[in-house]
Each structure stands twice: as C-alpha cells, then as structure tokens.
Amino acid sequence: MVDYITEIKNSRILNKKLRLQKMLNEAKLLNFARLATILIEVYGFEKPFRKVGKREGQEIEFYFPSIKGYITFILVKNKFDFKPRVERAKNPVSTATIYVKRDEIVPLMSELVRMKSNNFALLKIFIKYIIPKKVKITGNYLSFICLFRCLAIGKQDMFNNKR
Q1: Which residues, other chains included, contact 66 with Cβ-Cβ below 8 Å and sequence gap of 6+?
Q2: Which domains does the chain have, with CATH numbers?
Q3: What is the pTM for the complete model shown?
C-alpha cells in the first residue's frame, strides 16, 4: 500500500515537471516570435517584403526537436503584417528542422536576424549550419531564402556600434 502511494506521488511530481518543461519551451518560442515581430516592425526593411510577390501567404515552418516546438512564419508583402505563430503549419511550403541544443537556439536565431540580407550571408548560413547538418531544410528553398531576406536586418546602424 505504501509503495502504491509513493508511486502515485512520484508520478504526479513527474507530470508536474513535464508540464513545467513544456510551458518553458513554449514560452521560449513565444518570446522569440514576439522578438522577431518587434525587430521586423522597428528595424526591418521594406524592400525584401515587396519582393515576396507570388510567394505571399506561403508558410515556412521551423521545428526545434530539442524543445519539441514549432514556429510558423507566413510570407507577407507588408512588414507590419508579419506575425509568426507558435504552432505547427497547416500547409508548409518549406520546413527547417534545427538540430541544436536547447541553449543554442536563441544565439542561432539571433545570428540569423543579425545577418545582412545578401548572398554572402546565405553562403555563410549554408556553410555554417546546413553542411554540418545543424539545420535541415526540406521543401522549397526559394521560399526559405525569401523568409531569410525578410528576417535579416544586419545592415542597421545599431549593429555597427560596439561598446
């Protein structure tokens, strides 16, 4: 009888820990989605959004296996309509699976946002993340490149000021 009660208490503690971990993972993804929205609205450039063209409305999904979460970006023509969602895409055109540790997610996404929107930065991402298989892209590469150009705000003067 005592073992049964102890087992029930242990399972409740485990369930609470799992729920807490799930909430922390979701909060991390929500914070990144909000940060991306704010950065694009404040510092983003209009030019890459105007070049979205026929890709408008396409969904690009980022999947993070280390925290079992998804962020869906929808390509739009106006930077103020850019609203990423923290959920699985309904009809993804492209999926980027990011195989990094939990602690490396924020630095990776920060580096992605801080890159310049040019071919050299695309080459750098390819060499640094895709060849070593830290990021696996399935689906339409051109949609992913279009999203990268919208997210990249590295030409801003705030990145040039070093303290």
Answers
A1: 99, 100, 101, 102, 105
A2: 2-159 (3.30.1050.10)
A3: 0.81
